[in-house]
Protein: Transcription termination factor mitochondrial/chloroplastic
Organism: Arabidopsis thaliana x Arabidopsis arenosa
Amino acid sequence: MYSLILHGRRLVELHKWRHLRFSLQNASPLSNSFSSSVAADVSSRDGRKGKNFTVSYLVDSLGFTTKLAESISRKVNFTDKANPDSVLTLLRSHGFIDSQISTIITDYPELLILDAEKSLGRKLEILQSRGASSSELTEIVSTVPRILGRKSITVYYDAVKDIIVADKSSSYERPQGSHGNKIRNVSVLRELGMPQWLLLPLLVSKSQPVCGKENFDASLKKVVEMGFDPTTSKFVVALRMLYQMSEKTIEEKVVVYTSVGFTLDDVWEIFKKTPTVLKVSKKKILKSAETFLGLGYSRAEFLMMVKRYPPCIEYSLESVKRKNEFLVKKMNWPLNALVLHPQVFGYSMEKRIIPRCNVLKVLLSEGLLRKKSELPAVSSVLSCTDVGFLNRYVMKHNELAPTLMAIYTKGSVS
C-alpha cells in the first residue's frame, strides 16, 4: 500500500490545472446597442474593485503573499472588511491562533463571507456543546476547514476526529467492520493527495467503496495504475465503478464494446475519460451504435465520436436524433462537423442550440458572417460561453444588436 501511495503522489504532481469560470446574468432585449456593453463594463470594474480589495485585505490582515492572495481572490472577493473582520474575530475568540486561521482561510476562503454569528458562530457552539475542548476543536477544524460549510457538522466532525486520532497513535485500534474500514480507507486516500472536498462526502458515506477492505485495495490499485488523478472527482467515480463491478461483469461489458468495433485499448481509454461508461447497459450500447449508423454516420465516425466524447453513448436516442435532424438538415452542417465535435449532442436544444442558431440564421441572411454564406464551425457557435457567443455574433453588429439580442432571448425567429 505504501508503494501505491508514493505512486499516487507522483501522479498528483503530474496533474495540475486551473479552472477559469465565467458567468452571465440572464439577458433581456436591448433598448439600444450600447446598454449591454456598458453594463458589462460596470460589472467588470466592480469585479476588479472587489478583487483588489480582497487581495489587499488578505495581505494586510493575514500576512499572505500577494501571489497567494491573488489566487484566493479568484475564489472569493468582497469590497468591505466588516464581515471578514467578524469572522476572524470569532475564530480568535474560540482559540484559533494566526497560523491556524491562515491555514483555514487558504483552504476554505469562502468562510470569510459567511455570516459570523448566525452560521459560523452557531456551528462552533454546537461542537463545543458536545464536549469538544478548545484544543481539539481548533485542531480538527484546522485540519479539515470545510466541515464548517457542512450542514451536518457533528457527523463530519466525529469522522474527522476518528481519522486524526488514528493518525496520532501507532497503537490505535480501529473499530471493527465498515467504520474501521472507512477510517483506514479515507486515511489512504488522503495520503494519496485526495483533497478535502472529495474526502468529506466519503467520510460520512455508508455505501461502497469506502467501507470495504480487500475489494477496496484491489480497486484502488487498478485506478492508480491506470493513471487517474486522485485530486479529481473522476478518480472517485472510477474507484466506485471498479469496486461495484465484478471481474466477470467488467469483462462482459468490454466484450459488448468490442462487438461494436472498439479495441480493448479503446475501451480503457474511454473509461479513463468517462468512468461511467462501464455502467451503460448492453442494450444501450448496441442501440446507440445502431442509431448513429442509421443517421448516416459510418462505423469509423461513430467510434471516433465516442472516443472523443464518451458521454455521447449515454444520451437519449430520441435526443440524439432530434439534434442531428436540426443541425444537419435544418442548419446544413455536414455530418463531419458533428463527428469533430460530438459534444453538441449534450447541449440543450431550447437553451443553447436553437437560440444561437436563430441568431446565425439572421446573420446568414444578411450576409454578415465572415465568409458571407458559409457556416462557421460548430464549435465556434455552440461550444463557447454565453458571453463569448454574444461578443462574437451579437454585440459586434452595432445597429442590429438589439434585434439579434431579442431573437436570442426569445429563442425563436419568424
Remarks:
- The first helix runs from residue 2 to 14.
- Residues 12-47 have pLDDT under 50 and may be disordered.
- Residues 9 and 92 are 34 Å apart (CA to CA).
- The two ends are 65 Å apart (CA to CA).
